[in-house]
Specification:
alpha+beta; Transposase Inhibitor Protein From Tn5, Chain A, domain 1; 2 domains; 11-stranded mixed beta sheet; 13 strands
Length: 410
């Protein structure tokens, strides 16, 4: 639960009368235990996802898929690799996060995969040994199939950024009955009004409707949305850009093109998102809002990295150990998200209390933040443990000793 510092990102011991080394040794034994597998550590997170979907989702559960590089230059890790170039050394993390379709709040990560020089470690499939690493879209396609078989109470809608703009993989997801929402690029062609047209050109022909006010670069503007029925009939190109393999034709896929724009008062387009989905029965403005909520997975990466757990400073010596600790840290994130999502008066009072304990300063009109709740919760747990481990007499004696050094400050 602790919110770490970059230079002190090791496992923390609660302030009881047990030695700190004993806590560290116990944690090491836990992560080194072969019986503690990634699927077993994923089970509490999947259970939390089932409960969160039933409680917080309206019609669908949004499942956001994304990737994040973990940069490590620690010499104690022997299975890191050059991800993009020789100085970009570390692991490649793929995460799948459930987000509420009603509030946009994160609920739980339901799948994670960490790619190392030895192969790929995932929370699903055969995890007795690392599996051969695949490209991103092949990995996420396996993940989508696994998650669709989990029997969640609401259907999943899989959200992927522009890396998911691959007609071959879209055909695969569509044929399997999956629901998907992908941000697409400007130039690939799609059939509109009976002829193949570049996606950007289709957007220029549509009539837009004013939907809602949004914040863009700290200022408030209006969002405008349009949609069109399109068909993907172009052949799928090989995954490798320099491959000499021919393009592969396939069954045409019917979809909705939803275009979201943020406009200045003078009509200039400040931002534009071209979204493709096979979800029907949901208005275009809601589809655009769903994609906006995709940003929650970036917040998750930030919470386990620089704004919370300092993942890229962990000293575990292998990708498997990092993956195990990451799943435990993810459970702490889920706890914080549950506190943030609860609308009861008791939860609101707890949030205020935790923010005070964290010592963090909030932005104007912002009551709390997940990193601050995480930091405050660790302080609260530490305080509670102290009250259990030390008697009132012992605490008074310690206070008196401290006052000898601090005067009357305490």
């Amino acid at each position: 639960m602790n919110s770490s510092e970059p230079l002190n990102a090791g496992l923390k011991a609660l302030p009881d009368k047990i030695s700190s080394f004993a806590s560290t040794q116990a944690a090491w034994r836990f992560y080194a235990n072969e019986s503690v597998s990634l699927p077993i550590l994923q089970e509490p997170l999947t259970t939390a996802a089932h409960a969160g979907i039933a409680r917080h989702c309206l019609q669908y559960a949004l499942c956001v898929h994304d990737w994040s590089r973990l940069s490590y230059k620690h010499l104690n890790k022997t299975d890191t690799y050059a991800i993009t170039h020789e100085t970009d050394v570390g692991y490649d993390l793929q995460s799948s996060l459930i987000v509420s379709d009603r509030t946009g709040l994160p609920l739980a990560p339901v799948a994670q995969r960490l790619v190392s020089a030895d192969g790929s470690y995932a929370t699903y499939g055969d995890t007795a040994s690392p599996s051969p690493a695949k490209n991103h879209l092949e990995e996420v396609s396996d993940c989508i199939q696994h998650l669709d078989d989990q029997g969640f109470s609401k259907p999943l809608v899989h959200l992927i950024d522009r890396e998911g703009d691959s007609v071959g993989h879209i055909r695969r997801w569509d044929a399997a009955g999956s629901r998907w929402l992908v941000r697409v690029k400007d130039n690939p062609k799609m059939d509109y009004a009976g002829k193949p047209i570049a996606c950007k050109a289709v957007a220029q022909e549509l009539a837009f409707s004013k939907t809602r006010q949004v914040s863009y670069h700290g200022k408030t503007y209006w969002q405008w949305v349009a949609q069109a029925e399109v068909t993907l009939s172009r052949p799928a190109k090989p995954s490798q850009k320099k491959s000499k393999q021919p393009a592969v034709p396939g069954i045409p896929v019917s979809a909705r093109l939803v275009v979201s724009r943020v406009l200045a008062e003078d009509g200039d387009v400040l931002a534009e998102w071209l979204l493709l989905t096979n979800v029907s029965g949901v208005d275009a403005a809601t589809i655009a809002l769903w994609y906006y909520w995709r940003w929650q997975i970036e917040c998750f990466f930030k919470l386990v990295k620089s704004a919370g757990h300092q993942l890229e400073a962990w000293q575990q010596e292998s990708a498997l150990a990092i993956a195990k600790r990451l799943l435990v840290a993810s459970m702490a994130c889920v706890t914080v998200w549950e506190i943030a999502a609860d609308t009861s008066q008791e939860a609101a009072e707890l949030r205020t209390f935790l923010i005070k304990l964290s010592g963090r300063q909030m932005r104007h009109k912002q009551a709390s933040s997940n990193p601050a709740l995480l930091a405050g919760l660790w302080v609260f747990l530490s305080m509670s443990k102290i009250m259990e481990a030390y008697s009132q007499v012992e605490l008074e004696a310690l206070k008196a000793t401290a006052q000898q050094f601090l005067g009357n400050v305490v």
